[in-house]
Amino acid sequence: MKTIHLLIYLIALLPLSGQEGITLPENSKQASKILSQVRYAYPQKTLNFRGEIRPRRIGFKMIPLNLSFNSQLIKFEFFSENNSTKIIDETISLDFRDDKINVLRAYDSLTKEIKDDDLSNSIRGTDISYDDIVMRFLDWPNPVLLKIEKAKGGKAWKIRCANPNKSQLYSIVDVWVSQRSGAIVRMNAYNKKRRIVKSFEVDSIQQIKGDWFVETMIVRTYPEDGKSKPTSSFLKLVPKK
Question: Which residue, 39, 76, 119, 121, has most beta carbons within 10 Å?
Answer without folding.
Answer: 76
